[in-house]
Design brief:
The protein is mostly helical. The chain has 19 helices and 12 strands. The structure holds glutamic acid.
Length: 467
C-alpha cells in the first residue's frame, strides 16, 4: 500500500511550533517514501474552531513550504458520513445509547476516586435499551476481554488491557460526533497508512484501534511524537516567548532555518546540524526520533538562522528582508541594490529584523549617532580629517570602490596621520555607528550624494560639540 500521512490540526489557535514539527515529520515521512500528505482540519468543536485559525494554519503551512497533496478536508463537511458509521455501530450492537445524568456520572467518579480507582464509565446503560426519543449520548461498546497491542514507530511496543478502557462517547447529546470516532473514520476513508501525531493522543490510540476492529477496518501504523518543553522543563507555551510559527517570520527567521531547527528537535542524523529540505527528505526516519521530550532552545534557533542568512542565496535573503525594511518605512527600490547590501551586511546579523536595522543607513539618513562610537571617532582633529577627505571624494570622477579607497589613503598620507584618524570619523559620519563592511564598499553603496551630505552633517556636529 502506498504511504499516506496527514496533519490534522484543530483550528482553535495559530499554528504553533509543536504542531509545525508534527506536520513536518508527517510531511517528511510522506516525501521520503514517495507517498502523499493530507491536510485535515478537525473543526468539530464548533465553539472553539474559527475561520481565523484555519487561515493562520494554512498561512503557516505555506510559509514553511509544507505543501499538501490532498485537502484541506473539513470534518464539519463530513457529519453525514460519521452519523452513518455511528448508526452502523448501533445496528450491530457495537454501540449503545446512554442517558446517565451528569449527577450520576459525577457520583460514580467521586466514588471511584475515593476507592483509589481510575475514574471510568461503569457500563450502566449497556443493556438498558434507552429510547432514542430521550436525551442521550452514544457510547462505543469497548471489548471487556483481551488487550490492545501495537508497535508505535517511535515509542515501540505498547500493550493496554481492555479492562483499562471504558465505553467512550462517540456522539454527544447535541448529535455531534466526537474526536475518537471522527479521526478513525477519516483516517480510514482517507487511506492513511501512518498516523503521526503528538503523544498527547497516545492514550486515545488503543480506543481508536478497538473502533477500527469493530468496524472491520485495517489499522494504520502509529507514531507518537514526544512533546516540546520550554527551557524551564515545562511544556512549551506562550510563556516561553514566541510559539506561533508566523511570529518567527515577523521576528526575522527564515522558514528554512525554522524547519531545520524543528527537524533537529528530537531527530538526529549523526552530528549533522544543517540540513537542506532535500537532505531532510532523504535522511528522515521516524525510528530515529527520540522518545524523550526535547527542549526548545532559542539560542540554537538563532544560530541556525544566522547560518542560513550567511549561506543562502543572497537574492533569496534580499527577497525575505524586503518586508522588514518596509516595516522601517524603507522602500529598498529607492536605494542601492538590496542583494549587494545583503552581501555586505549579512555576516553581522542573526535575524532579518537585525539585518534590516543595521542596513537602514544605506537607504536613509540615520536619526542620531551611536553615542559611544561618535565619542570615540569625533575627537581631536576629526573635523579637519573629514573636511580633507570630503574634498577628495567630492572631486572623484567616478564613484567606484577603488577610487574611494585611494581618496581615503591619499588623505591619510597628506595629513601624515594614522589610517584610523581618517577612516574612523568617516565611517561613523556615514553609518552613524551601525555595523558595516569595508569602508570603500560602505561608501560606494551609500552613494556619493548621501556620503557628502553626511560628512557635512558630522563636521557640523563636531563643531557644535566643540563650541
Ligand atoms: N486534532 C487533533 C489535535 O489537534 C489531532 C488529532 C490527531 O492527529 O489524531 O490535537
Amino acid at each position: 500500500m502506498s504511504v499516506k500521512t496527514r496533519f490534522a490540526p484543530s483550528p482553535t489557535g495559530y499554528l504553533h511550533v509543536g504542531g509545525a514539527r508534527t506536520a513536518l515529520f508527517s510531511w517528511l515521512y510522506a516525501r521520503r517514501h514517495g507517498g502523499r500528505f493530507v491536510l485535515r482540519i478537525e473543526d468539530t468543536d464548533l465553539e472553539r474552531s474559527t475561520q481565523e485559525s484555519v487561515n493562520a494554519i494554512l498561512e503557516g503551512m505555506t510559509w514553511l513550504g509544507l505543501e499538501y497533496d490532498e485537502g484541506p478536508f473539513y470534518q464539519t463537511h463530513r457529519f453525514d458520513r460519521y452519523n452513518a458509521i455511528i448508526d452502523t455501530l448501533l445496528d450491530k450492537g457495537l454501540a449503545y445509547r446512554c442517558n446517565c445524568s451528569k449527577e450520576r456520572l459525577e457520583r460514580l467518579r467521586e466514588e471511584q476516586m475515593a476507592a483509589r480507582q481510575k475514574p471510568r464509565y461503569d457500563g450502566h446503560c449497556r443493556n438498558r435499551d434507552v429510547s432514542p426519543d430521550e436525551p442521550h449520548v452514544i457510547r462505543f461498546r469497548n471489548p471487556d476481554e483481551g488487550e490492545v497491542v501495537f508497535d508505535d514507530l517511535i515509542r515501540g511496543h505498547i500493550r493496554v488491557a481492555n479492562s483499562e478502557l471504558d465505553d467512550l462517547i462517540i456522539r454527544r447529546s447535541d448529535g455531534s460526533p466526537t474526536y475518537n470516532l471522527t479521526v478513525v473514520v477519516d483516517d480510514h476513508d482517507m487511506a492513511i497508512t501512518q498516523v503521526i501525531r503528538g503523544d498527547d493522543h497516545i492514550n486515545n490510540t488503543p480506543r481508536q484501534i478497538n473502533l477500527y476492529r469493530a468496524l472491520g477496518w485495517a489499522v494504520p501504523q502509529f507514531a507518537h511524537v514526544p512533546m516540546i518543553l520550554g527551557d524551564d522543563g515545562s511544556r512549551l507555551s506562550k510563556r516561553h516567548g514566541a510559539v506561533s510559527v508566523m511570529q518567527y517570520r515577523d521576528d526575522g527567521y527564515l522558514p528554512e532555518a525554522l524547519l531545520n531547527y524543528l527537524v533537529r528537535l528530537g531527530w538526529s542524523h549523526g552530528d549533522q546540524e544543517i540540513f537542506s529540505v532535500d537532505e531532510m527528505i532523504a535522511l528522515f526516519e521516524l525510528e530515529a526520533v527520540n522518545r524523550a521530550p526535547s527542549t526548545f532552545n532559542t539560542d540554537k534557533l538563532k544560530w541556525l538562522n544566522q547560518q542560513y542568512i550567511m549561506k543562502s542565496d543572497p537574492a533569496r535573503v534580499a527577497h525575505l528582508l524586503s518586508p522588514h525594511l518596509g516595516d522601517l518605512g524603507i522602500d529598498p527600490a529607492g536605494g542601492p541594490d538590496l542583494v549587494a547590501v545583503v552581501e555586505a551586511q549579512r555576516e553581522r546579523a542573526s535575524t532579518l529584523v537585525e539585518l534590516a536595522a543595521i542596513s537602514a543607513f544605506y537607504y536613509r539618513d540615520f536619526d542620531e549617532y551611536d553615542a559611544k562610537a561618535a565619542k570615540k571617532a569625533f575627537k581631536g582633529e576629526a573635523g579637519q580629517a573629514l573636511a580633507a577627505v570630503r574634498q577628495r571624494l567630492a572631486g572623484l570622477e567616478s564613484w567606484e570602490r577603488e577610487a574611494i579607497h585611494h581618496s581615503v589613503a591619499e588623505t591619510v598620507e597628506a595629513l601624515g596621520v594614522g589610517f584610523g584618524k581618517v577612516a574612523m570619523p568617516l565611517r561613523i559620519a556615514v553609518t552613524g555607528g551601525a555595523p558595516s563592511p569595508d569602508l570603500d564598499l560602505t561608501l560606494y553603496l551609500v552613494g556619493r550624494e548621501a556620503t557628502l551630505r553626511r560628512i557635512d552633517r558630522a563636521i557640523e556636529h563636531i563643531g557644535e560639540a566643540g563650541a
